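Researcher: I'd like a candidate sequence for this fold, 359 residues long. If you have to choose between options at a position, lean toward the conservative one.
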């Protein structure tokens, strides 16, 4: 018996477009219906729901919530692992993709790999985001992750300015361009590239534990002829950089992927490598002003194989950072696309949040 044959480009594009449209239905119609059901039930409850558990008691056994949860879990599975998923699509060109990542083709100093600084157990214990095999070991995982990241949050209508560019604007407006900066958990460079492009006079370092992603980040930087960036395989908890060697430490979507002890260690490490007066600015998922949002977000963590999403969202980061001696600690909701913080915004969205502090 022969296999199912090569996946054709039109079939792949159609299947991925279907997943995206179905995600849109889930984030708009299904989410709105679930919210309406919750509000109706909360109005009739003996006391107002105060916790995610209270919300679960009202809606978790209902058909609507189960449908909502099924869509979330299985659309993500389809996106990655089904016949027309991202993994099989890239798998068929594995050899060519691996050739594109040859470290020997890179300018000296752009990429530094150190397997001893590879992924901690908490990164490899399960397939985060339902990415088959995870992003840390498979040589082509960076390509799969890059393609997947284009359709994480469906935003219908007008094209939105990317949230990573918006973070660069936030940094520029809150202290200006740094001289030396560190992007912790840089992945395949999506969070780092807007910094090395937006701050051409700054020296930028991106670190991550995933070698496949770092290789892709470095090759993209080489293609862009970026001269002010380097990518290094290092852990956020133990970067190995000298004391006071950066003016800005940043991260995007790193903290919620770490257990609380690793988050605390990364905050300590950021403080150590920051010069006095330096800034730490993380963009992550934290601001959840009502119990319904907490319930949906915690459920997202479970359905998307992100077990540390809930502990991070529940962490009192202001208290933690102040106890570590950081100054001017701020936790601010972040508008990742036009209008998402407007009152009455009715779609499911990640609770984008800035966690900022000074050394
Ligand atoms: C959700 S991705 C975000 C990537 C990138 N910042 C972006 O915005 O596209 C989280 C990244 O953190 C990395 N990571 C997880 N634990 C880490 C650690 N202890 N030290 C450094 N990077 C880590 C993962 O390998 C992954 O690339």
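Model: Candidate sequence:
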């Amino acid at each position: 018996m022969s296999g199912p044959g090569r996946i054709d480009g039109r079939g792949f594009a159609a299947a991925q477009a279907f997943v995206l449209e179905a995600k849109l239905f889930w984030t708009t119609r299904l989410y709105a219906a679930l919210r309406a059901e919750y509000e109706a039930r909360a109005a009739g409850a003996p006391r107002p729901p105060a916790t995610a558990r209270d919300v679960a008691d009202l809606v978790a056994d209902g058909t609507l919530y189960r449908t909502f949860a099924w869509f979330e879990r299985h659309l993500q599975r389809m996106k990655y692992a089904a016949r027309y998923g991202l993994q099989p699509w890239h798998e068929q060109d594995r050899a060519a993709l691996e050739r594109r990542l040859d470290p020997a083709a890179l300018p000296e100093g752009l990429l530094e790999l150190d397997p001893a600084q590879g992924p901690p157990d908490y990164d490899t214990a399960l397939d985060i985001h339902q990415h088959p095999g995870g992003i840390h070991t498979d040589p082509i995982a960076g390509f799969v992750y890059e393609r997947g990241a284009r359709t994480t949050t469906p935003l219908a209508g007008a094209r939105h300015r990317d949230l990573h560019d918006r973070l660069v604007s936030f940094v520029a407006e809150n202290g200006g361009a740094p001289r030396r900066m560190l992007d912790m958990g840089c992945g395949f460079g999506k969070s780092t590239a807007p910094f090395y492009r937006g701050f051409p006079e700054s020296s930028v370092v991106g670190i991550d534990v995933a070698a496949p992603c770092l290789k892709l980040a470095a090759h993209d930087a080489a293609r862009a002829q970026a001269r002010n960036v380097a990518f290094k395989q290092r852990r956020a908890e133990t970067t190995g950089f000298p004391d006071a060697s950066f003016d800005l430490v940043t991260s995007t979507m790193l903290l919620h992927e770490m257990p609380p002890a690793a988050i605390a260690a990364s905050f300590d490490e950021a403080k150590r490598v920051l010069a006095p007066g330096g800034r730490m600015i993380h963009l992550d998922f934290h601001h959840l002003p009502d119990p319904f949002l907490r319930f949906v977000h915690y459920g997202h963590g479970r359905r998307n194989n992100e077990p540390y999403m809930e502990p991070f969202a529940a962490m009192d980061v202001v208290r933690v950072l102040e106890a570590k001696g950081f100054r001017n600690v701020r936790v601010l909701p972040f508008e990742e696309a036009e209008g998402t913080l407007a009152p009455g915004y009715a779609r499911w969205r990640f609770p984008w949040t800035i966690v900022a502090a000074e050394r």
